[in-house]
């Protein structure tokens, strides 16, 4: 997806130009590590939403890279821990999910635990957008709103514009930013490796396959109020085993 693609057209309109200017101002002087967080903040400023988070696709779970605040970060981590929620649907299909009211029964049917937890956190609507395209979805931009409601065509266009700019910022990272030992992407890779290591240890402890081991890790994390990464670190540090009561 290129910046400006998507419904709503109107590239020459005053509101579109304002959005472009706000995005440019938000990114001014930002390095690669800062761009996703800056764009999450810009999304909250431009749109009728209360929080935003961005996650990259991972082999076993999405990896949160930025959030506009604590609640948005927790909801992103919750989706990763549960293996369920709007962002997972986007990662599977590459299509946006626009859940205008989580109290609607269809949302509870699709994501029962996530919906319950999100409502408990004061979130009534979630809009999850792909980073990339239907063919190649590299992650998601998730927008959270405390009141129910839909995005207008213009607002959706702005949200897709922010997602498109974030996609470009991520995919155009220079190789030294991707591979630097102290870079944020290296930190994400290390987190991902810890989850894989924990899954391998659970497989050995229980004699189960990778999917079952990951499901056990996720269930244990949720039961103890942890993120899946926190639970994985406990397993890797041998503070938690799955073959003992």
Automatic annotation (TrEMBL):
Signal peptide (residue range): none
Origin species: Streptomyces variabilis
InterPro entries attached to this UniProt entry: ANTAR, GAF, GAF-like_dom_sf, WH-like_DNA-bd_sf
Domain ANTAR: 181-236
Organism lineage: Bacteria, Bacillati, Actinomycetota, Actinomycetes, Kitasatosporales
Protein name: GAF domain-containing protein
SMART domains, per the entry: ANTAR
Keyword Nucleus: no
Record key words, sorted: Transcription, Transcription regulation
């Amino acid at each position: 997806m290129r910046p400006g693609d998507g419904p709503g057209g109107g590239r020459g309109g005053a509101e579109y130009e304002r959005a472009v200017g706000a995005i440019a101002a938000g990114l001014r002087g930002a390095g690669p590590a800062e761009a996703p967080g800056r764009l999450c903040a810009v999304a909250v400023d431009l749109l009728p939403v209360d929080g935003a988070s961005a996650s990259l696709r991972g082999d076993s779970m999405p990896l949160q890279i930025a959030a506009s605040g604590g609640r948005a970060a927790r909801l992103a981590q919750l989706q990763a821990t549960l293996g369920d929620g709007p962002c997972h649907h986007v990662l599977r299909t590459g299509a946006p999910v626009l859940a205008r009211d989580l109290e609607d029964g269809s949302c509870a049917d699709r994501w029962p635990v996530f919906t319950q937890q999100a409502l408990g956190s004061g979130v009534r609507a979630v809009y999850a957008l792909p980073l990339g395209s239907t063919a190649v979805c590299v992650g998601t931009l998730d927008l959270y709103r405390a009141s129910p409601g839909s995005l207008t065509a213009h607002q959706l266009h702005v949200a897709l514009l922010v997602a498109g700019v974030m996609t470009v910022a991520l995919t155009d990272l220079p190789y030294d930013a991707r591979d630097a030992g102290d870079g944020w992407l290296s930190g994400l890779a290390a987190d991902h490796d810890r989850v894989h290591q924990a899954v391998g240890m659970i497989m050995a402890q229980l004699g189960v396959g990778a999917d079952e081991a990951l499901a056990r890790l996720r269930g244990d994390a949720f039961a103890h109020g942890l993120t899946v990464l926190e639970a994985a670190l406990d397993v890797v540090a041998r503070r938690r085993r799955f073959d003992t009561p």
